[in-house]
């Protein structure tokens, strides 16, 4: 029997990398699961960002998803399904923090090219980027509650931008249409679907033309503004995830999610974004 680490080990094809005119394009490519994360995939993203930050041949990074359905739908629920209780949460959250830290500490321009739905941690990572581009069909938001998961860190992250309205969005598990997301400041630019990546590359070049040291020091200062609140929110998320998984409730909801998905496949119903993990 395979261990959990073996079952969800990183595959090189899960995160594609391509340098285009000194801009590194990182593409999440797990289209069979709406480009959802595994811990191993987050580890690899962190590794690539650390390497790119130290590479003098890379001026900026664009992060996007493969296909046209999803940028990243959040945590792969199949990995969560392996959690018997809350004991798995601590190592899982530590790997999540390592990934988020690598995104937050990336000193060069980092642009998100949202090509499809961005939910939960898939949405969260875009909010650590310097500039976010999407197209009119994109939807984004925090959907954890709908999957039986406490919405903690993602709620805080939205709160930092929009205040108490974050609670309403999180408790509904609602995905925002692109117009609402742009109005609230979660997205900076909306372009035609075919131009998302091109626009993101142009934005990366534009930002990389800023004075390098000033850009780096500004990002460092901006990160420190909310460092304590970031840490507090992550610790709270770990505690409440542990509490939830100890009850077995998230595991039961995840089981229902996969049961619904199997039923849809059996009925040959086109897939929807209902039940996207969001963690």
UniProtKB/TrEMBL annotation:
Record-linked Pfam families: ECH_1
Organism encoding this protein: Bradyrhizobium zhanjiangense
PH domain segment(s): 1-46
Coiled coil regions, renumbered to chain: none
Name of this chain's protein: Enoyl-CoA hydratase/isomerase family protein
PANTHER family hit by this protein: 1,2-EPOXYPHENYLACETYL-COA ISOMERASE, ENOYL-COA HYDRATASE-RELATED
């Amino acid at each position: 029997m395979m261990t959990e680490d073996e079952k969800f080990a990183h595959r090189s094809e899960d995160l594609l990398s391509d340098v285009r005119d000194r801009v590194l394009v990182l593409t999440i490519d797990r289209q069979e699961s709406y480009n959802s994360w595994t811990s191993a995939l987050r580890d690899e993203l962190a590794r690539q960002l650390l390497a790119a930050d130290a590479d003098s041949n890379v001026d900026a990074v664009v992060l996007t998803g493969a296909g046209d359905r999803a940028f990243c739908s959040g945590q792969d629920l199949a990995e969560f399904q392996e959690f018997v209780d809350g004991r798995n949460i601590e190592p899982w959250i530590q790997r999540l923090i390592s990934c988020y830290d690598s995104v937050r500490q990336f000193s060069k321009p980092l642009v998100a090219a949202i090509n499809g739905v961005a939910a939960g941690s898939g949405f969260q990572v875009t909010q650590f980027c310097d500039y976010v581009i999407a197209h009119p069909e994109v939807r984004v938001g925090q959907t954890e509650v709908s999957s039986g998961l406490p919405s903690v860190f993602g709620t805080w992250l939205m709160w930092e931008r929009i205040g108490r309205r974050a609670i309403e969005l999180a408790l509904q598990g609602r995905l925002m249409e692109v117009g609402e997301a742009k109005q609230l400041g979660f997205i900076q630019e909306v372009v035609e679907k075919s131009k998302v990546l091109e626009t993101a590359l142009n934005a990366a070049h534009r930002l990389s033309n800023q004075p390098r040291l000033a850009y780096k020091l500004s990002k460092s200062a901006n990160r420190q503004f909310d460092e304590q609140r970031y840490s507090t929110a992550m610790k709270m998320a770990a505690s409440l995830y542990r509490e939830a998984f100890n009850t077995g409730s998230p595991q039961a909801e995840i089981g229902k999610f996969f049961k619904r998905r199997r039923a849809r496949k059996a009925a040959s119903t086109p897939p929807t974004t209902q039940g996207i993990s969001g963690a």
